[in-house]
Amino acid sequence: MTSDSAQPTAHKGDAPSSRPRRALIRAITASVLVTALVVGAVAFSIGRLSTIADAVPDATSAEAGFARDMQVHHDQGVELAMIIRDRTDDAPVRLLGYDIATTQARQSGQMAGWLTVWGLPQFAPEPSMTWMTRPTLAGEAHGASHTAASAAAHVAGEPMPGLATAEQIAALTAASGVEAERQFLVIMIAHHRGAIEMAQAVLDRSTNTTVLALARSVVASQQSEIDLMTGMLAARS
Asked: For residue 96, is pLDDT > 60?
């Protein structure tokens, strides 16, 4: 884990609508995302040399859909993580927020890099999550595979699995201290579960080695963080 000691000190009493704070969050997020995009594109280009047998995905492929939609999902994760770091003085929660923000920003940049290398547009030519409604490699459709058997079938264009609502974000922003920590943990556990659902969906629909490696990493790391956050939430009940 990256040390949290060098990060700015949070002030719980600040008004949640503080413009300087929001500007700082946007600046930090943008900076991390730009760096991640560059690193991701370079890393992916190098990786292609060892995975040259992989076909280049097309604009409506599962790989392209996952890359676009998971960027949106991860970017909200960064936003939520930066909010909680500004609403609590609890060191473990602030460190968790920092780790989530940096990890998900880096992965978001990596996926943007994939689309650049594949020569595909960053914006989808069809509604979000459409790729999740298509059959898996085993021929199963609409989330019927073993990895998503218990999940409701997703409808193209509807909110992505686990995304926080505007109301949840507003409530989190207005909270502070332990109450903010509880809200964040509840929201982020659901957010991580949604990301795992999306990662498992692309695992069922792709043979691209680069995409599969990241998807497996998302499943493993976010499940680990769910376990951690579940314990943290129980301690605050």
From this structure: yes
